C-alpha cells in the first residue's frame, strides 16, 4: 500500500508531520500491505484507536472472524515502533479480553 493512501482519510495520521509518522510507524510494513478494503479498514481502526477510542476499535475488531482479528492485531504490532504505543495497545486488548470474574477482582468487588 502506498504510504499516502494509508494516511489519507485518517485524521490522526494526517495531523502528524512525515517525520513523526516515520518515527512512530514502520513504513516498510505499510508498503508491504496489499492495497485492499481490509487493509484500509485496519488503518481506519488504528486511526480510531490512536484518536483515543480504543474501546470502539477493539469492539469492532472483535466482530471479525479469528483470522481477520489475527490480521488486524498482527499488522498493528508490526506497524507500531514506539514501546509506549505498543504497550498501550496490548494493555487495552488485555483489559478488553479479561474474564468478568477478573474484572470484579480488579475493580475491588472481590476481597
Question: What is the structure about, briefly put?
Answer:
It is built from nine helices and no strands. With 111 residues, the protein is an all-alpha fold.
Could you characterize what this model shows?
This protein is mainly α and 111 residues long. It has one domain (3-106). It is built from nine helices and no strands.
Span between termini: 51 Å
Helicity range: over 70%
Give helix and strand order, one letter per element, not per position. Answer: HHHHHHHHH
**DSSP strand tally:** 0
Class per helix and strand makeup: mainly alpha
Uncertain stretches of 5 or more adjacent residues: none
Topology:
Elements (H helix, E strand, L loop, with lengths): L2 H5 L3 H4 L3 H7 L2 H6 L4 H14 L3 H9 L3 H14 L3 H15 L2 H7 L5
Helix pairs in contact: 5-6, 6-8
Task: Give me some keywords for this one.
9 helices; about 110 residues
Amino acid at each position: 500500500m502506498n504510504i499516502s493512501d494509508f494516511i489519507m482519510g485518517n485524521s490522526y495520521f494526517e495531523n502528524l508531520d512525515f517525520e513523526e509518522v516515520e518515527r512512530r510507524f514502520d513504513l516498510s510494513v505499510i508498503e508491504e500491505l496489499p492495497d485492499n478494503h481490509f487493509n484500509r479498514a485496519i488503518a481506519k481502526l488504528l486511526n480510531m484507536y490512536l484518536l483515543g477510542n480504543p474501546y470502539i476499535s477493539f469492539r469492532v475488531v472483535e466482530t471479525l472472524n479469528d483470522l481477520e482479528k489475527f490480521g488486524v492485531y498482527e499488522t498493528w504490532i508490526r506497524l507500531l515502533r514506539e514501546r509506549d504505543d505498543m504497550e498501550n495497545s496490548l494493555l487495552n486488548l488485555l483489559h478488553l479480553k479479561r474474564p468478568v470474574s477478573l474484572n470484579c477482582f480488579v475493580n475491588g468487588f472481590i476481597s
